Each structure stands twice: as structure tokens, then as C-alpha cells.
Amino acid sequence: MPPKRTPTNIRYYDDEDLKSLLNIVALNGNGYKISRIAKLHKQQVVDLVHQLNTDWDNESVQLLSLSGAAMKYDETAFSKILLGCIEEMGLIKTMDTVLFPFMKHVGMLWQTGTIDPSQEHFASNLIRDRLIVEIDKVVKPEIEKCMRFLLFLPEGEMHETGLLFARYLLKKCGHETLYLGSEIPYADIEKVISAYQPDYAFIVLTSLNLGKDVNRIITKVMQHVDVPLLVAGSLIAEFDILVKDRLIPLKDVCGMVGFLEEL
To answer: What is the Cα–Cα distance from 61 to 97, expressed in whole angstroms?
Structure first.
């Protein structure tokens, strides 16, 4: 794919180039050799990828399809892919194999300047809306021992996808939640803890710019909570988390589901 050049001869790739590259990656990842793809016309590539899109269990294709829809701000296409995955695989598997990898992929593209922040926000808000719908669908079961969870994101963390998913899992398991959302000031946490008296506090850390500070943030949160703290999110899987009393790191979706189901 030859690059375009600015008047000062600097190479660059536009959105159409990136969409074409995503299509090529999708085909190559599903057994098409680069030499074969190179002989195809652009529309043939698009048609083949469209055929792959109907295979909802093909996580890599759905991830790339979501990326393409986000780049085009195509709400209809994005929502159709998202709903198709959930209907075919269920929300838990969709989160584990499609949406969390997609959000990580989009975050990397944003960090490198490949996509605009508006495209990341577009995708995140559509996922947020779908998660809220899925939470509303859950019929909370009656359980013998119902626990109370305080869910929030500390200062500097604004990505709610993982926290909303935690709320979904907790409701599905029959527990109570108080959901505060993103960027809660540390000064407010103790007041809420005192008033709500949860059995656990739950935070999710995913913002790449917080990576180097992840242990400092966890320590600061723990200074304001006097109950066990559950911590999930991609940063927990990627960085070494210091062992602390009352700290329960959940490194992946299986860890989250397993811990909550055993309570």
C-alpha cells in the first residue's frame, strides 16, 4: 500500500488506508496469504471481509470490524456487530474475547495517534450504552448471603467499561451494588463507605497513562477504604501489583467471574 505524501514529502496514511489495512489483516489472520490478497481488487477484499463478519465466533474478525466501524463513526454497523456477538456468545465471552481486546487495541491506536480521541469516545459510549441495557435485562436472583459492593473509578481513571461489566456480573450473582462511576475524588470515598457500609470496594484500572503509577493509586485508594478492595482492569494484568492485606487483584475475566461466583 503506497503511502501518500504531504507537500513537504512526508509520508502519511489516511483513514481509508487504515481501513484497507484492517481488512488485509482480517483476511491474513483467517488463512488468506498476502500474495493472494495482493491480487484481489479492493471491492473483492471488502466482500470477503463482509463474509467473515457473519461468523460471530471469529473474535479477531469482529475486533477488526468494530475498529473499522469506529473509524467511520458508523453507529449502525458497530451496534450490529456488538449485538451479534452478544447474542451468539453471551456477554461474558464477548467481553473477554472481543470487547476488552478491542478497547486495548483502540487505546494503543489512540496513543500512537493512529485514530482520533473522538473515535475512541464514540466506541466507548456505544459499548457503555449496550452494557447498561444488558445490566437492565438481568433478573437479580435471590441468594442466601447478599453482599454489598461499592463500585467506583479513582481520580485519573475515566474508562467505565470494566466497571459496568463488574456491575453486570454482581447483579447476575445476586449482590447489591452502589455505582459511583468515574473519577471519584478521594475525599468523597470515606464518606460513602461510612454511609453505605459495603462488604467490598471495587475499582478498575485501564488507562495507559496510569500504568507507572498503578501501585501508588491502589495504595491511595486503600488509605480511604476500610474494607477489602477488588482491583481489576488491564493494568492489573500487565504490571506487577504489590501484595497488600485486604487487596484482591483480579487479573482477567475468568478471575472476576470465579471470585464473584464463589462468594
So the answer is: 11
* Cβ atoms of residues 119 and 235 within 8 Å: no
For the chain, the average pLDDT equals 84
Compute the Cα dihedral for 92, 261, 157, 211 and give only its sign. Answer: negative
Query: From CA 173, how far away is CA 44, in angstroms rounded?
Result: 46
Contact assessment for residue 56 and residue 84, using Cβ atoms and an 8 Å cutoff: yes
Which own/partner contact pairs does 251-256 have at CB distance under 8 Å and 24+ positions apart? Answer: 252/96, 253/92, 253/95, 253/96, 253/100, 254/96, 256/165, 256/166, 256/169, 256/232
Phi, psi of 76 (to 5 degrees): -60, -50
Q: Domain 4-136: give its CATH superfamily.
A: Methionine synthase domain (1.10.1240.10)
DSSP state of 72: T
DSSP one-letter code for 239: S
Is the Cα torsion angle 227, 230, 235, 237 positive or negative in sign? positive
Domain at 140-262: CATH code: 3.40.50.280
How far apart are alpha carbons 127 and 88 in whole angstroms? 17
Q: Taking the chain, what is the end-to-end CA distance rounded to the nearest angstrom?
A: 53
Domain map (residue ranges) of the chain: 4-136, 140-262
**pLDDT of res. 12:** 45
pLDDT in tens, 211-257: 788 999 999 999 999 999 999 998 998 889 999 999 999 999 999 99
pLDDT, tens digit, 9 for 90 and up, residues 1-24: 455 555 665 554 455 665 566 666
